Amino acid sequence: RWMKAQTEGALTVAQVRDFFPDAAKLGARDPDSGVQRALDATDETLGLVTQTAPLSDKIIGYSGPTNTLIFCDARGNITGLRVRHSDDTVEHLQEVLRHREFFASFNGLKLGDATARPKVDAVSGATLTSTAIAEGVLRRIGGRGPSLRFPEEITLAEVQELAPEAVTLAPAKGRQGVLEVYDATPQV
After folding, report:
1. CB atoms < 10 A from the CB of 87, how many?
2. Do residues 140 and 76 lie in contact, with contact meaning Cβ atoms separated by under 8 Å?
């Protein structure tokens, strides 16, 4: 519970003021999309904010997941990102944070666009961390594509190098991105 509170807890107005300086409050968090409205003192919508957690919780960079805030205009177009919390190594995260162009490559994408596949260059020296952040952002805005960190499917031949008795591979139930390896009987 403590971990969940750290990564997906309620946002505060102070956390959105970099993008919405006139924000007076945040609207209720939509339970389906996780989106909140940033509102001014007259309850006019200034923009939208959401975070990648809990969808990004199982997307591990070099050593842990990263929860990223996604800021959008009132129409749902991304205007910026900020890392809210990361369990990745400090060195790898700092390397990603130094590359503003990495974060800017998401600008203009739209919430709910399941086809979004921007050209995002991984940050050299922090490849796993940066691609995990990118994958978390794309998943939150609606994408369900292949892993950016490991875009090619694992083949039976690769598995047989480590487990010669392997005959088939099948997706593990309830564990996205995990394959079960079966022998001829068929037993896992």
Report:
1. 16
2. no
pLDDT number for residue 171: 84
DSSP-assigned letter for residue 28:
P
Q: Residue 13 is encoded by which pair of tokens?
A: 């107005």
The SS3 call for residue 71 is strand
- Please tell me the distance from the alpha carbon of residue 6 to that of residue 87, in angstroms, as a whole number: 11
Cβ(188)–Cβ(173) below 8 Å: no
Res 102 pLDDT > 60: yes
Interval 104-152: pLDDT, tens? 999 999 998 877 776 778 888 888 999 999 989 988 988 665 566 666 7
- The CA angle 71-143-68, to the nearest 5 degrees, is 35
